[in-house]
Amino acid sequence: xxxxxxxxxxxxxxxxxxxxxxxxxxxxxxxxxxxxxxx
Length: 39
Description:
Layout: H1 5-38
């Protein structure tokens, strides 16, 4: 069964949002750790 282009775009956008959220979380953790070590 061929997947509709709309469904494919929705899945791609969902994955992109998930990856961005994970990267943001990792960056936030690294920044927090760096601030704690500087004190």
